[in-house]
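Deliverable D2.4 — example input (structure tokens):
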């Protein structure tokens, strides 16, 4: 890592500001909602049909938009089903915002909530200390495994919590997308060498090595990054922080790194220009993992 650089995630306020700007500028949430509305019901049908109660965990749920979309879809498809929904989220502000969203969303009174304001590592420790034995129909972790070191152990732990026919959903960026290219080219300068990022490809390799079965669904996304190319533009700087995961990237990166990152982001491998806007293209995959056999 270039010594002047610090991680964005270490500054919770700026991380949340950057995440919120990203949510405004990306199609990734809408694409995930489309996946939840149009594909998830069929994927889950064999597991859900005939049930009157579901146990669910959302891991790294953030402010809950995706969780609420899933729960609302389930309500629509299975109006008589009750749900125990656990949330694992370490950031107190995110938990607060999630609870606000719950209070503003009508028709969620069929859900019993359990809020775990802790990291996934602490959740696993707590689970084992309390010798909990509950099993789950559906566990999801959307865009959160980046923040976990031993991803294999985390996946195995959550697989062990699945009921028979239960499903674990993992979504992450794909390594050969624009974001992956950025990371492969400059990641070693963004982060300490021992902190590696992860793409969905690595998770699939891990599952293949364990002989685990999974299905995979592609979600292509676009983000307007035009402001990143306007010198001194505050939102552009915030977006660059989010893309690189470096705090105050524009002000703290050495000139050669900043120039290289901007050039790569502008390159047709990563972006297209359309109507005067620079649109960053990338894709994520959702993989649906079965219980360990
Ligand atoms: C990119 S956000 C994704 C939020 C949400 N799943 C979504 O897709 O909108 C990543 C989330 O993971 C949470 N997170 C970070 N480290 C974590 C950890 N060690 N255990 C669990 N969650 C973590 C962050 O607080 C954040 O809410």
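Example output (designed residues):
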């Amino acid at each position: 890592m270039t010594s002047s650089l610090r991680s964005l995630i270490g500054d919770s306020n700026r991380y949340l500001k950057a995440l919120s700007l990203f949510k405004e500028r990306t199609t990734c949430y809408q694409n995930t909602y489309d996946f939840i509305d149009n594909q998830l019901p069929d994927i889950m049908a064999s597991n859900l049909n005939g049930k009157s109660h579901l146990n669910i965990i959302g891991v790294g749920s953030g402010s809950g938009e995706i969780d609420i979309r899933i729960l609302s879809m389930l309500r629509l498809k299975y109006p008589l089903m009750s749900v125990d929904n656990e949330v694992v989220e370490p950031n107190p502000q995110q938990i607060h915002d999630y609870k606000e969203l719950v209070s503003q969303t009508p028709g969620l009174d069929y859900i019993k909530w359990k809020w775990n304001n802790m990291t996934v590592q602490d959740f696993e420790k707590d689970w084992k200390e309390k010798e909990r034995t509950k099993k789950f129909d559906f566990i999801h972790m959307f865009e959160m495994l980046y923040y976990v070191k031993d991803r294999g152990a985390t996946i195995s732990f959550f697989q062990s919590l699945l009921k028979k026919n239960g499903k674990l959903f993992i979504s992450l960026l794909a390594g050969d997308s624009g974001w992956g290219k950025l990371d492969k080219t400059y990641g070693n300068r963004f982060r300490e060498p021992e902190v590696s990022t992860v793409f969905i490809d690595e998770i699939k390799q891990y599952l293949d090595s364990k002989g685990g079965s999974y299905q995979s669904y592609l979600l292509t996304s676009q983000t307007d990054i035009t402001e990143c190319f306007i010198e001194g533009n505050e939102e552009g700087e915030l977006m660059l922080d989010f893309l690189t995961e470096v705090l105050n990237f524009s002000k703290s990166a050495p000139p050669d790194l900043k120039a290289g990152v901007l050039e790569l982001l502008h390159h047709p491998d990563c972006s297209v220009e359309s109507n005067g806007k620079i649109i960053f293209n990338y894709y994520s995959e959702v993989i649906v993992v079965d219980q360990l056999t």
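The chain has a mean pLDDT of 93.
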